[in-house]
Amino acid sequence: MMAITSSASLCETGKAQSPINIEGPMHKSAMPLQFDYHASPLKIANDGHTVRVRLASGSQLKIGSQKFRLYQFHFHTPGGDRIGGEEFPMSAHLLHKSDSGQLLALVVLFRVGAKNQALSALMPLIPGRADGDHGHEKISIDPNTLLPESRAYYRYTGSLTSAPCTEGVEWIVMNMPVEISPAQLALYKSKFADNARPVQALNKRIIFENQ
């Protein structure tokens, strides 16, 4: 696994940056995703750039023998990572960390279509200003509701998408997008300006695919 490196200059000079355009040829992965996510009391924040939800310990993602704890998720517009050149209007980034400190970002992409039930519950609770976390002990959020039906995915080694653009971050991009209604997307964009980083060069990195 690639060692994590960090420097402000990586945003300009790094060779393993995120997001990317996912396209072939790809290497097959035999390691399925095993989700062990659980509902958690809602802790939500407007950080001035996106809505961020922090999760209590207990939810984790297993990939082979590796285990990654889910600790927060947030959203980007547009989606950032592309598949076969297709740009998506929105994405959810679910951030994980292993016991050894390895970072993993799991990306769920959105297409415009039907109303998204997870976002229907979340959007009315977005704080009106950036003033820290708002706890809702009587309201639970289940991260499973953000996931698509298919567990097919792409995997590559990338970076954080904002300074210092730390490299060595594992990226899992779900193959199947979920849907968001035009009204939901417009409401979200009325609250937050676009915050996705442009697509970065692949630089001969290997993309793994699991169907």
Outline:
The chain is mostly beta strands and 211 residues long. The protein contains 3 helices and 15 strands.
Q: Briefly, what CATH class? A: Alpha Beta
CATH architecture designation: Roll
Poorly predicted residue ranges: 1-6
Which percent bin holds the helix content? Answer: under 10%
Number of helices: 3
Rg over C-alpha atoms, rounded to the nearest angstrom = 16 Å
Distance from N terminus to C terminus (CA atoms, Å) equals: 22 Å
Please state the structural category: mainly beta
Bin the strand percentage: 35-45%
Number of strands: 15
Q: CATH-wise, what's the superfamily?
A: Alpha carbonic anhydrase
Q: What about the largest sheet?
A: 13 strands, mixed
Quote the average pLDDT. Answer: 94
Q: Provide the domain count.
A: 1
> The CATH topology, please?
Carbonic Anhydrase II
Overall outline: globular
Query: What's the order of the H and E elements?
Result: HEEEEEEEEEEHEEEEHE
